[in-house]
Fold Mitochondrial inner membrane protease subunit.
Amino acid sequence: MFRNVLGKTLRFLGYTVQYGCIAHCAFEYLGGIVMCSGPSMEPTIQNSDVVFSENLSRHFYCIRKGDIVIVKSPNDPKSNICKRVIGLEGDKVCTSNPSDFLKSHSYVPKGHVWLEGDNLRNSTDSRCYGPVPYGLIRGRICFKIWPLNDFGFLRASPNGHRFLDD
């Protein structure tokens, strides 16, 4: 009797560990569902919108200008942020705020990306903390899940003029 209960318990623990490993790999390498908070990506992503983030792009270095990514915050490694990729390594980017009279530009260093929120007036992004290492990217947002009336792929950046093609 005791052996039978012990056997079933160990089998249950074995299955739990196996399925836990499968779930971890799925969320780490394939993707997951993310709830976004804050005003920095408005109007593209509103506060409390739910999106699907895929993680394969970051592993295969397929992140492109215009993609919206989930990134470990350079200011607080315990939190994630959601921003749009404005520049990749070697790109010339505008580092000043839209309201600045004199515009300043810089080049994105190797192994980094330049990130900005779509709501330029209310976003803490690369204009504040500089270029972000590529290794901090956690995933790329593919489409919006919630609210249902906005279900589908995300719209283009309202700040397309900030992409420089020099």
About this structure: DSSP finds three helices and ten strands in the chain. The mean pLDDT is 83.
